[in-house]
Amino acid sequence: MRKIWKRKILIDNPVELNRDQIEQDLLAGNQVIVQFSHPDLYGTILEEVDELCAHFDENFGVRFYGHYSLSFDGHTLFRIPHVKMLHLNSLTHAHNTEALAALKHLRSLHLGIYELENSNILGSDSLRSLSDLTIFSEKKILNLEYVKEFSRLEHLHVGGKVKNLDAVGDLKNLNYLALHSISKIPLHFVNRLKRLKHLRILLGGREHIQEIEENEMDNLEISRVRGFQDLSNIANFRALTSLLIEDQNQLHEVRFDQQMKSLKELSIWNCKNLAHISGMDQLPSLLKLRMIKTAIDFDSFIHQKLPHSLSTVEFLTTKNKVDQEIQETLSNRGYQKWSSF
């Protein structure tokens, strides 16, 4: 199942809650998150929040953030034992985080604590029922060995300093994986994730993703990865429908030297030294193409053989006069402008 992005409605430091409005927002397909930035603002409303947690599914959640100059006290979680979606992020300090073990109904957890006190925070048995986990550790090295036991995990976003990343390869139900600011750790474990459909590699540093073999992924994103220069194994991603490459200044060329029958959207942003893209005729299903701030010569590009399926093209240099001329050429050829991000 592909990760579905839902609109988040945040209720910030409330003194009262409108249950009818919350229910309407949830029925409309949104996520509703009640959030608190300071313990003085919890009041007695946390007990009411917990009642709603018990009533609604994991699209209703609670967030604790900020708490500037203070450490978030994990014992606060004892007041919301029925929470199913919990965000503890944008926090500098937290203590008593072992209280997470008391949350027997938790399905979605987002942890972003700068001064994380416990590198083995994922060791609690109660976390094994998670289907969605986002976790960042910027100072302590986070031990990921425990995720081997997270058999229900479908969506994982992990970032910062980690060890035992290879354990992620044991997550047989994982559908979505984002690796954030993780440098040079080999990616061989990805080949064991047979249900993985969406892979995002964000920030950090690596030269290539050659370790990844033939797969059935649907979406691939490579964004702001320091030193990335080689995408020559792109044909291994034979089932891709969407490819996004962003802010990769060391990438000089992209070659589609084998047919990729499923690729429908290709977006390349701010790759200033990317001078060559070839094999576009190997993308027979391509519908939408976006090229922004590259070194590719438009005249050479537009005169190569392009897919007959292509209907939407955006090619921008950020030079107004040049871009107006390019847009006119594209319009004359019958291409629509890519109007949504």
SS content category: mainly beta
Mind summarizing the main beta sheet?
14 strands, parallel
User: What is the tally of beta strands?
Assistant: 16
Order of H and E elements: EHEHEEEEEEEEEEEEEHEH
Fraction of helical residues: 10-25%
Uncertain runs:
none
Question: How far apart lie the N and C ends?
Answer: 22 Å
Q: What form results from the Cα inertia axes?
A: globular
Specify Rg, calculated over alpha carbons. Answer: 23 Å
How much of the polypeptide forms β-strand, as a percent range? 25-35%
What's the rounded overall pLDDT mean?
95
Tally of separate helices: 4
Q: How would you write the strand order of the largest sheet?
A: 1-2-3-4-5-6-7-8-9-10-11-13-15-16
In short:
This protein has 341 residues and is mostly beta strands. It is built from 4 helices and 16 strands.
Walkthrough of the structure:
By secondary structure, the chain is mainly beta. Helix content is 11%, strand content 32%. It has four helices and 16 strands. The strands form two sheets. Strands 1-2-3-4-5-6-7-8-9-10-11-13-15-16 form a 14-stranded parallel β-sheet. Strands 12-14 form a two-stranded parallel sheet. Helix 3 (298-302) links the parallel strand 15 (288-294) and strand 16. The chain is globular, with a radius of gyration of 23 Å. The mean pLDDT is 95.
